[in-house]
Structures are given as C-alpha cells and as structure tokens.
Amino acid sequence: MTNKDLANLIFPNVTKTIEDYEKMYPKRNLKDDAIVTRAAPSPTGYTHMGTLFQAFISKKVAKDTNGVFFIRIEDTDRERLVEDAVDVITTDLKYFDITPDEGVISGNKEIGNYGPYTQSNRKEIYQTFMKYLVANNLAYPCFCTKEEKDEMTKAQERRKDRIGYYGRYAKCRKIPVNDAYQRIKNGEPFTLRLKSPGDFNKKIVINDLIKGKISFPENDMDIVIMKQDGLPTYHFAHLVDDHLMRTTHVIRGDEWVSSLPTHVQLFEVFGFRPPKYAHISPIMKEENGIKRKLSKRKDPEAQMSYYREKGIPVKAVELYLMTLANTNFEQWWDANKDKTIDDFKYDFKKTSKSGGLFDVEKLMNISKNYLSRIKATEFYDMLLNYAKEYDEEFYELIVKYKDFTIGLLNIEREQKKPRKDYASFSEVKELVWYMYDELFDKHEKTYEFKDVNDKEEILKLMNTYIEKYYDENDSQETWFNRIKDLSEEFGYAREVKEYKENPNKYKGHVGDVSMVIRVALTTKSMTPNLYDIMKLLGKDRIDRRIKELEKNF
Ligand code: GLU
Predict the structure, then answer these.
(1) How many A from CA of 113 to the centre of ligand 1?
(2) Whether 434 contacts 378, CB under 8 Å
(3) What is the pLDDT along the chain (553 residues), one digit of tens a residue?
(4) C-alpha 42 – ligand 1 centre gap (Å)
(5) Residues 130/232, Cβ–Cβ less than 8 Å
(6) Which of 112, 280, 299, 378 has the most Cβ atoms closer than 10 angstroms to its Cβ?
(7) How much distance in Å is there from the Cα of 78 to the middle of ligand 1?
C-alpha cells in the first residue's frame, strides 16, 4: 500500500486536483497595491461590536485601495450553529453600510466568482487539498480517542512537557500505511493530522501589520486538519479559502496571533505565499478605572440593537469606529470638516496595539457633531425612518408637519458653528415636544421661569407684548427692537450693559424679558433661537400658548 492508495481510500470521490482549483480561481486582475480582504464570521452567535469593527476596517482598506471586500461564513463548527445567525449578521452589517463586493449577502444568497463563500459548501475543495497532503505523506490519519489524548495530556503535565500532539507524543504519525489503510477499511473513526515539518527550537519572525515584528518558535504540532465529520478545522479552511479567494490581507481578532506559526507553515507546506496579517486587539472598556474587554453580555453598546433602538446615525457610528481604528482620524476630521471618511486613508500603523477604548460619551459627541453638519432635510429623512419604527405618534406628527419639522431642525444649522442639540434620533422628541400642540397639550409642564417669576408680572408682560409689540411678519431685528420697547415700557433696561451700569434703576433687562417670552411659550428656559421658534409657531399657536399659561398658573 502506498500513501496514494491511502489517499484514494479516504477520498474516493475527490477527482479534481489543486491545479484545477488554481485555474478556477485565477489571480485577481487588480493593481499591485489593491487589498483583497474579508470578514469571516462564524454563525455561532450574533453580530457584536468586535465583528462590526473588524468588518469595518476590512471594508475600509479594500475601498481605500480599490480592492475587494468579501464576506465568508465559517460554519464548520456544526454543533454550535445558531440557525438565523447568517441572516442576522449580514443584515446587521448591511445596516451599518458594510456591504461586501463578493460573498455571502444574506442567509441564502452569495455573489462573486470565488465562491462558494460558505465553508460547509466547500467540502470537496478542502478534501482535494487534504488528499494531496495524504498522497504526498504530508498528512496522516489519527485514530487516537479522546481518552487516549486525555491520558497523553496528563502524562505531559506530569513530566512538565509542552501539551500537544508532537514529537514522541505524535503516536499515529508512526503507524505504517498498511495498518492505517486496514483500520480505515474496518470503519475505525479517524481525523487527519498535518505532519508538521517544524522544529520548536528554531524561530520564525512574522511581521504583523498592526503589532509589528513578532518572533515565535516554529510550529511542531501535528495539528488536526480534518475533523471526524470530514470538515476542516479553522486552520486548514483558512489556508484553502484565503489562498483560493486570493486574499492579500487577513485582518482578524488577535486571539489568532498564537496560531500564526501554524498558519504560515500550512501555506509553506503547499508552497503558497501567505497573506499579510493584521491582528486587531479587542475593543476595551473602562469601568471604575479598570480596563477590560468590551463584553457582549455586560455592555449594551456591544450589541447592534443598541444603535438602532437609540437611533444613533450609522454615519456617526462609522466616524466613531474610524476614531477607534486610527488614532489620527479625529484630528484629521476636525481639520477637514467638509470631508467624509472616504477621503481619509486607513493606516495599519496608526491602529492601537493595546485596543481602543470604547467610550459612549465620545460616540455621542461625534454623533452631535455629525448631526449638526448635515442638511436639515437629510436629518428629517433619517428621523422619519427612525420614528416610523420606534415612535408612531411622533412619526405621524412629523409627517403631518413636514415643513414645520424641517424648519425646526434647521434652526441655527446653516452657519459656521451650528447648534449641537441632538446626538440621536431617540432624543429629538424629548427636546422639541413643546413645538407640537398635540404633544404640548398632553405633556406635563413645569415652566422654568428664572429671575422674573411673578405670575402677575409675567401675564401682564405677555399680554402687552402680544397686543402691542408682536407682529409675526417682523424681521429678526425689528422683532428684537420691539422686545426692547416692551422692556422699556415695563421698566427693564433695553440693553444688558445699561442695566449693569445702573442696576438700581431697572427691574432687570431685555434678556429677562426675552426669557419670560421664551418660557411662557415653550416652558423651557433653553431653546434654539427664540425668533425662529416664534416664527415657526406663528400667531395662532402663540395665542394658544398664552391661554395655556394662564390656565397653568
Ligand atoms: N471565523 C473566525 C472567527 O470568527 C474568523 C477569523 C478570521 O478572520 O480568519 O474568529
């Protein structure tokens, strides 16, 4: 019996060769510096911030270099599969604008010429590569049972040896081909192991694009490449897939760093060029001065639903992810306010080696900045989308009062330093309810009057104002002059300065009077520009508000 016979026995149905696949998936026709990369989630759970962050960076570098970004589903762990995970993951990524150029785009759809992109549909391809290894005496069947392996581990612990299947412990490496052949023929279960050519006493140095040069002992473990169910292990699938999909860069979580010597070795065994590697440190979180990994279970912001439900705009999340990804981004964005992420190039070297710190407050600030810089109509459309899903009452109001709402959102917007009221869509209603009669009527009202808080004085001021000084067609300047006239009539200084020079002469100043008007109409002591607010409210609503005030006093 030869190794070839053994290979034929194990893989009787494999008729293709590696060369056939090389031809089927030719080198991509791209510029030299184009990056081909991927997100390769396992559908053993749903999307979380780590998945999103990795996919975000991968898509970004592919886009920056006119390369390719694809999604591959790594579903060889059949026991831990979560039924709808592929649908959820692809939908989540799409929601955050991370659509792939190729690969899995939904639970039942793939696009692109380098597929299938779902590992469980690639069994024949993996087996072709495994068959080559067996036929060339580079891999062998292993019949060790779990009990035998446990025994071995115990012995290694006792002797203070390294744990694993290597050297003198690699029992099945020594089984003669004839015996192995017979045992397989007899139906004995087996896995396949790589015959590692590595020497633990030799070093290899790998240049990680984020972590820099890392030195490792060579891999000398005869790792499992095929499980008993005939499917590959992660290591082997990574080799086959990233080779045939012509991946140039593997960007992944740094839990894989320790597997690098194994992965590089696998590529070498086949004579393939390994991709470049960039290992991302996990996103961290600081709690009571202690740093820990952002946790799917403990931190709501690690879940995708958090962003949707709060209505944090996708673009703000992207800006925040970019801030986390590249330490120089924030400064760049500050200096280039009119530009977008697309104008910024991701730099592996500017990625935190120790893991970015997730800071919700900072995200909200970024979101505020972002929302203050977009057009009111754009804001309105996004708000509408949000409200449609999460707040029917508000949705109906902003549909009914579309121009009014856009006008409201536009207050102090188109200017050098725009107003920054809103960090998320879920906050909008709570900030502007007083503008809509329907909400005003039912809202619990606490009038936030300040220095002038005498009821009689307030009502007198308001009634005089409306009867004598208010005209809804006034320009802002005339409007303000008239408030000054009103102030004067009631014994308040026309200018703050005058008041400060002579405080005993006045009851207060024009600012106090404006405050009375503001609070009387809105209940709030802080609102966007009062002139604009009043323009939007218009005469009828303003009259109603004064009656409402009388009622509430
Ligand atoms: N399926 C692996 C994981 O979810 C992918 C790692 C990789 O990107 O190669 O961790």
Answers:
(1) 21
(2) no
(3) 999 999 999 999 999 999 999 999 999 999 999 999 999 999 999 999 999 999 999 999 999 999 999 999 999 998 999 999 999 999 999 999 999 999 999 999 999 999 999 999 999 999 999 999 999 999 999 999 999 999 999 999 999 999 999 999 999 999 999 999 999 999 999 999 999 999 999 999 999 999 999 999 999 999 999 999 999 999 999 999 999 999 999 999 999 999 999 999 999 999 999 999 999 999 999 999 999 999 999 999 999 999 999 999 999 999 999 999 999 999 999 899 889 999 999 999 999 888 999 999 999 999 999 999 999 999 999 999 999 999 999 999 999 999 999 999 999 999 999 999 999 999 999 999 999 999 999 999 999 999 999 999 999 999 999 999 999 999 999 999 999 999 999 999 999 999 999 999 999 999 999 999 999 999 999 999 999 999 999 999 999 999 999 988 8
(4) 7
(5) yes
(6) 280
(7) 15
**Does the beta carbon of 50 lie inside 6 Å of ligand 1?**
no
Collect all residues with Cβ–Cβ distance below 8 Å to 284 and sequence separation of at least 6.
Answer: 291, 292, 293, 294, 354, 355, 356, 357, 358
Q: Among the atoms of ligand 1, which is closest to the Cα of residue 255?
A: 10
Say how far apart CA 57 and CA 326 lie, in whole Å: 10
Q: Which of 150, 148, 187, 188 is nearest to 171 (CA)?
A: 148
- 175 burial via Cβ count (<10 Å: 0-12, 13-18, 19+): middle
